[in-house]
Amino acid sequence: MKVHPVILFDGVCNFCDSTINLVIRRDKKHRIKFAPLQSMAGSQLLQQYGIDENAMDSFVFIENGKAYTKSTAALKVSRYMNRLWPLMAVFFIVPRPVRDAVYDYVAARRYKWFGKKDQCMIPTPDMRSRFLV
């Protein structure tokens, strides 16, 4: 059985929702699975990888049995996307503390800039198979 990489994301964040929809559109081979941090599957994976469940300011990318957060997670996800997105990997040359500082700046303001929903996104029927429950 193939183990798919998984993105755990803030399901009530409009910016995160838009980002997940972008990844879904650009991951043409359907390699990545998704789960909101607030879901049962998200909570179980956070616990399994020893990540604080209260850390809703980041998304988590799980690949090959390892969990990545913040800018590293975002850059690793870009490798699965089509078009020019894999070129984002060039930003791995930027030291992680610098990348994460930029990530943290946006994450701290995402609700103010992009808004927040009352509930997690509900995947369309054709997307449902890509989401963990």
Structure described in brief:
This protein has 133 residues and is α+β, with helices and mostly antiparallel strands.
Q: Topology, please?
A:
Blueprint: E1 6-9, H1 14-26, E2 33-36, H2 40-48, E3 60-63, E4 66-69, H3 70-78, H4 96-114
Parallel strand pairs: 1-2
Antiparallel strand pairs: 1-3, 3-4
What features would you highlight for this structure?
single chain; 133 residues; alpha+beta; 4 helices
Provide an overview of this structure.
With about 130 residues, the protein is an alpha+beta fold. It contains four helices and four strands; from the N terminus they run βαβαββαα. It has a four-stranded mixed β-sheet with strand order 2-1-3-4, with helices on both faces. Helix 1 (about 15-25) links the parallel strand 1 (about 5-10) and strand 2. The radius of gyration is 14 Å and the shape is globular. The two termini are about 20 Å apart. The model has no long low-confidence stretch (mean pLDDT about 85).
Query: How is the biggest beta sheet arranged?
Result: 4 strands, mixed
Report how far the terminal alpha carbons are from each other: 18 Å
Order of helices and strands: EHEHEEHH
Residue-averaged pLDDT = 85
Number of helices, where a helix is a run of at least 4 consecutive DSSP H or I residues: 4
Calculate Rg over CA atoms: 14 Å
- Provide the β-strand percentage band: 5-15%
Q: What's the arrangement of strands in the largest beta sheet?
A: 2-1-3-4
